[in-house]
Amino acid sequence: MTRCVPYLICALLWAALIAPSPAQARTRNPDDERLIGACIRRASLGRPWLEKTLWGLRDQEAGWIGAEVANTNGTHDLGPLQINSWWVARIAAHIDRPKTHVHHWLRFDPCFNAEAARWVFLSALRTTGDYWKAVGVYHSPTAWRQRNYTASVAVHLSARFGNDVFVR
User: Fold this and answer.
1) What's the start-to-end Cα distance of the chain, in Å?
2) pLDDT (tens place) for every residue of the chain, 168 residues total
3) Where in the chain does DSSP place strands (E)?
4) Burial class (CB in 10 A: 0-12, 13-18, 19+), 82
5) Helix 88-95 vs helix 99-108: crossing angle, to nearest 10
């Protein structure tokens, strides 16, 4: 029995690592999905490339209206596009609104959430000057996390729009 304990511990740790996160495990409400889709279209400002980008981020993040998913670093991911709570103070300052309001809107207002996602992504694009780097920065300031995230978003974009997602 004692020889099995290390294998059991490894198996349990492995199962915990591959278990879906709360955001991924939640069943999607069709009415909420339609609303989120309308908000993504509105947030894209009529730019097809930006709408596709927001869909790629949304499909990767897999959040929902009301979501507040805890991260290991003490922050939380909020709403359908899982905006990290680190952004709350910055968004609040940008729009001159209280942080408590911004936090609530990010969770419960899918259009505010999609517009915040657009702002975060476009801010990263202005800073980096590189589309895929900006996709990675949307997720994390850490290079290896950016690479993994970017690859995953690319898979989601291809799944939703086909392999020629950005071909005119």
Assistant:
1) 62
2) 444 444 434 333 333 444 444 455 567 788 999 999 999 999 999 999 999 999 999 999 999 999 999 999 999 999 999 999 999 999 999 999 999 999 999 999 999 999 999 999 999 999 999 999 999 999 988 889 999 999 999 999 999 988 887 776
3) 68-70, 76-78, 83-84
4) buried
5) 110
Q: What is the CB neighbour count within 10 angstroms for residue 132?
A: 14
3-state secondary structure of 83: strand
- Which CATH fold would you assign to the domain 27-161? Lysozyme (1.10.530)
Residues 6+ apart with CB under 8 A from 61: 23, 77, 80, 81, 82
Residue 132, SS3?
Answer: helix
State which H helix or E strand residue 42 sits in: helix 30-43
